[in-house]
Design goal:
With about 375 residues, the protein is mainly beta. It has three domains: about 80 residues, Sandwich (Immunoglobulin-like); about 80 residues, Immunoglobulins (Immunoglobulin-like), CATH 2.60.40; about 160 residues, no CATH class. The protein is built from four helices and 27 strands. About 30% of the residues are buried. Pfam families: TIG (PF01833). Keywords: Signal.
Length: about 375
C-alpha cells in the first residue's frame, strides 16, 4: 500500500470538517426550532360565573405544575386548583371583572379569544334615607346581598368608615361618622364593593332659639295688623300710619289675617297664618309690598310639646315636600303648626289662644325656630 497521498488526504479532511460541523449545528438548530412549544387557550367554561366559582380552561402546553401557571381574569390573579399540560381548573378571584382570561407559562402570556363574563354577586345599594344629615345621625341603606352580621359589612362615607348598628340581607342601619363629608356611600362584603350613585349630604344642624311668646293681631278690615320676623324674633306693626321698612319687609316670614272660605276679606271670620307673598296677592290694604317673601305652613301633631323638641326633631320632622306646605292655613287654639320660610329656616308655632270676633282678632302664640 502506498502512503504517498496521505498528506493530501489529511488536507482534504481538514478542509471538509468545519463545513460538516457548521451544517450539523444548523440542522440541530432547525430541529429545535421546529419542536419549540407554544401555550394556547382553546376554550374555557362556563363562560359566565361569579367570584369563587371554578372555571375549566382547555388548551395546550400548560405547565403540569399548578404554580407554573399564572392565570388572570382581567388584572385579578386566580388560584390554580389543578393543572395538566392541556387543562387548568381555576377559581374566579375577588376583584375579577368581565375580561379576557390570560395564562402565563415560563414568561410567555396568551389570552383567550372570548371574554369571560363575571356574574356579580356582591352587595348593591338601591337607595339610602335620609339623603342628608349631621354627624352622629342615623342612615338606612337599602339594597341586596348585605351580610346579616353587622361587622361583616364595611360602610364608608367617602373615606371614613361608619359604624353598622343593624343589618340583614336587604338593609343596613348606620351612623354618620365623625369627620364625614358630603360624599358617596359604599358597602363592602367579602371583598366586593358597591358605591352609591348619589352623594350623602353632611349638614350642620341649626341650634334652636328660646321659645318666644308672640301676640299678633288683625283689626278693622285689615287696616291694622302685625307681622313676625322669626329670625330676629321681632314683631312689626303695620297700619295706616306706620309699617315695616323695605328691609324689614324682606325679613317678615309670618303674617296673620282673617279670611272667609274664598279668601275674601269682606265678612271674613277665619283666622289664618298667611305667607307674606300671598298677603300681597290677596290685596290686603296693609300688604308687605314687593319685598314680601314666601313661607309655607303645615298642621302638626297637637300634642307636640315645644319644650321637648330637639334640633334634630325640627330639622328632620318638619317636611313640606310634595305640596304639603300651604301658603295660608286656617288656625285654631291648642293646635301646633310648622313653617318653613324662604331661607329654609324651620320652626313650630303653638297657637295658645285665638280671641276676638269677625275680623277683629288677635292670637297668642309660642314660636320655636332654628337659630341662623
Amino acid at each position: 500500500m502506498k502512503f504517498s497521498n496521505y498528506p493530501r488526504l489529511r488536507k482534504t479532511i481538514s478542509a471538509v470538517l468545519p463545513v460538516v460541523a457548521i451544517l450539523f449545528f444548523a440542522a440541530c438548530s432547525e430541529d429545535e426550532s421546529a419542536t419549540e412549544v407554544y401555550t394556547k387557550i382553546n376554550e374555557f367554561y362556563p363562560p359566565s360565573a361569579e367570584v369563587g366559582a371554578i372555571v375549566t380552561i382547555n388548551g395546550e402546553n400548560f405547565s403540569s405544575s399548578e404554580t407554573g401557571n399564572s392565570v388572570k381574569f382581567g388584572e385579578a390573579e386566580a388560584d390554580v386548583k389543578s393543572a395538566s399540560t392541556n387543562q387548568l381548573k381555576v377559581e374566579v378571584p375577588k376583584g375579577a371583572t368581565s375580561a379576557k382570561i390570560s395564562v402565563t407559562v415560563k414568561g410567555t402570556t396568551v389570552k383567550s379569544i372570548n371574554t369571560f363574563n363575571l356574574i356579580y354577586n356582591g352587595p348593591s345599594i338601591s337607595l339610602f334615607h335620609p339623603e342628608k344629615g349631621p354627624i352622629g345621625s342615623g342612615v338606612t341603606i337599602e339594597g341586596t346581598n348585605f351580610s346579616e352580621e353587622p361587622s361583616e359589612n364595611t360602610v364608608m362615607f367617602g373615606e371614613v368608615q361608619a359604624k353598622v348598628l343593624k343589618s340583614n340581607e336587604k338593609e343596613l342601619k348606620v351612623i354618620v361618622p365623625e369627620n364625614a363629608i358630603t360624599s358617596k356611600l359604599s358597602v363592602t362584603v367579602d371583598g366586593e364593593t358597591w358605591a352609591s350613585e348619589d352623594d350623602f349630604e353632611v349638614i350642620e344642624i341649626s341650634q334652636l332659639n328660646e321659645i318666644q311668646t308672640v301676640y299678633l293681631y288683625n283689626l278693622a278690615d285689615n287696616e291694622s295688623s302685625s307681622f313676625y320676623n322669626s329670625t330676629l324674633q321681632t314683631t312689626y306693626v303695620n297700619n295706616l300710619f306706620e309699617g315695616p321698612s323695605a328691609e324689614e319687609q324682606q325679613q317678615v316670614d309670618i303674617s296673620f289675617g282673617v279670611l272667609d272660605n274664598d279668601n275674601a276679606q269682606a265678612g271674613n271670620v277665619y283666622p289664618n297664618f298667611i305667607s307674606p307673598k300671598l298677603r300681597v296677592a290677596l290685596g290686603f290694604d296693609n300688604d308687605l309690598g314687593i319685598n314680601a317673601t314666601e313661607t309655607t305652613f303645615k298642621e302638626e301633631d297637637p300634642d307636640l310639646d315645644l319644650e321637648l323638641v330637639t334640633p334634630d326633631d325640627l330639622e328632620f320632622n318638619v317636611d313640606h315636600s310634595g305640596g304639603t306646605g300651604l301658603t295660608k292655613i286656617s288656625i285654631a287654639g291648642d293646635k301646633v303648626y310648622s313653617f318653613i320660610n324662604a331661607a329654609g329656616v324651620k320652626g313650630y308655632i303653638e297657637v295658645v289662644e285665638v280671641n276676638g270676633a269677625d275680623d277683629y282678632k288677635y292670637v297668642e302664640l309660642k314660636i320655636l325656630v332654628q337659630k341662623k
